[in-house]
Design a protein that fits this description.
81 residues; alpha+beta; Mth169, Chain: A; three-stranded antiparallel sheet; elongated
C-alpha cells in the first residue's frame, strides 16, 4: 500500500518561499498568479495492508516527524497499488 502525505502551512502563517515563487513567476511574465503557498509531498510505501492501521500509523508519523503541527496541516491519502 502506498500513502501520499501533503504538508502545508496553516492559514495565517507567513510563507516566504511561496512569496519568492510568486515574484519569480511574475518576473517570468505569469502575471495572473495572485498567491502561492508551497508545501511538501511525501510518498511512502507501507507493508501494512489494513487501511485503518496504516492511517493510524501515518497519523503518528506526521505528528512526530513529518509535519510541525504548530504551523503545518497535513492530509493523508492511501493509494492502492
Amino acid at each position: 500500500m502506498k500513502a501520499h502525505v501533503h504538508v502545508t502551512l496553516k492559514t495565517g502563517v507567513l510563507d516566504p518561499q511561496g512569496k519568492a515563487i510568486q515574484h519569480a513567476l511574475a518576473a517570468l511574465g505569469f502575471d495572473g498568479v495572485e498567491d502561492v503557498r508551497q508545501g511538501k509531498f511525501i510518498e511512502l510505501k507501507l507493508a501494512e495492508t489494513d487501511a485503518e492501521k496504516a492511517r493510524a500509523s501515518l497519523d503518528e508519523m506526521c505528528r512526530k516527524l513529518l509535519a510541525n503541527t504548530v504551523i503545518e496541516n497535513y492530509t493523508i491519502d492511501l493509494v492502492e497499488e
